[in-house]
Amino acid sequence: MQSEDPGPVQMLGVCRKCNVPLPLRVAKENEKGALWLCATCGTQYCGVLDDDGRGDAHERVLLAPLRFDRSQLAPPPNVTADFIAERVHLDYPGPERRAHIRRPLAAPVAVVPLDACFLPTDRPFMGMACNISTGGIALVHTRSTTAPHLALELTIDEGREIQAVIRVVRCRAIGLFYEIAGPFLVRIAPAPRLS
Known about the structure:
Elements: E1 24-25, E2 34-38, E3 44-49, E4 61-63, H1 78-88, E5 103-114, E6 125-132, E7 136-141, E8 149-156, E9 160-167, E10 170-174, E11 177-188
Parallel strand pairs: 4-11
Antiparallel strand pairs: 1-3, 2-3, 2-4, 5-6, 5-8, 6-7, 7-11, 8-9, 9-11, 10-11
C-alpha cells in the first residue's frame, strides 16, 4: 500500500504585520512547530524553520525566548576548564579552512539540546566554549550529544551576552571529553524584562 503524498509544504510566507519574508513553514503531521518571532517587528508564529543555510533567512526570525536557569545547572568540572585553558593557546594544525577566523575562548556555556523542530529534547547542561567566530562555535563537555541543534547562552567581551542556536556538525571524543561544534543558525529572542 502506497502512502498518500502530503502535497506541497505550506509556507508561512511573509510577516502579516511588516511584510518581511519569513523562512518558516507550517508543521507537518509528524512535527510540532516551535514558537518564532519576526526579527523586524516581533510578531509571533508557530512553525518549523525552513532554511537551507544560504542567504539571510536566519536574520529574519528569532527563536522564542528560552530559559537558561544556570542556578539549576552544575558548573563544568575544574578539569574541563583546565583542559580548555591548555588548548586555548594551541595553534590549530594545517591550513585554516573556515570562512570566519576563529578566536580562542574559555567561557562557561549554558546549553539546551533541541530537536529537529527546535524544541527542547533533553536536560540542559553546562559546557565550556573553546573557540568562537562570527560563523560558529566549538565547546567541550564531559558527554556527547545526539541533538541536531543546541541553544547556547554565554557571556564574552566584558559582559556581552550571546543567545543563539547552532546546528551540531561535529561531536567527537577528545581524550576524556567531547568537542561539540557547529555554525550559528538563528538568534534567540531576549526574555522579557521583569518590572
